[in-house]
Amino acid sequence: MQGKFITLEGVDGAGKSTHLGWLVEHLRARGRVVVQTREPGGTPLGEKLRELLLHEPMHLETEALLMFAARREHLELVIKPALLRGDWVVCDRFTDASFAYQGGGRGLSVEKLGQLETWVQGNFQPDLTLLFDLPIDIAAQRMAGADRQLDRFEQEKTEFHERVRAAYLARAAEMPTRVRVIDARQSVEQIKKQLEVLLSSV
Ligand code: TYD
Q1: What pTM was estimated for this model as a whole?
Q2: Whose CA is nearest to atom 20 of ligand 1?
Q3: What is the distance of C-alpha 93 from the center of its chain?
């Protein structure tokens, strides 16, 4: 595979969506063909699963299985074909989010998540993961300004989001070369500069 697979992660409110558009434009300006996508979602079936995952109450293992089911479809139909064509793929959340939300947030064991990860993707991992890290009180303030209905995850209490953040940071500590932590308290301009440096090394 010749293209590169870049994922963006972070707690709700950390600002990854703000940076995603810039990042894609930046890569395109450098002549890359970029496929922008997201999880859960990214395929017609995956987007239907997203609707259920974000709004329908369910058992935590059902939630994890549906996340990985959507991911299986996404890898097969979108991500791998794009990488094989030599395109770059920029994905708003991927498997690290399952470890953070279903693992850290909901308490599903790392062993079970690891089994699903191996089943669905083998050794396949993103080339670079940008983890936007932000203290939960600041993230919550940013979310409070959002003028829209909150989904099932966004509605969770502070402790849930604290555990999500900790699980993300644990994942980054485990795989420091792939997962790069960005201090999301910085200004947008400072973050852009940092992203440019990180992207130039992929
Ligand atoms: P998010 O990416 O924050 O989308 P938006 O910016 O439109 O709100 O929403 C996706 C939610 O799904 C987010 O709260 C985290 C959750 N999620 C998981 O719990 N596990 C996963 O594996 C993935 C990919 C997402």
Answers
A1: 0.96
A2: 98
A3: 2
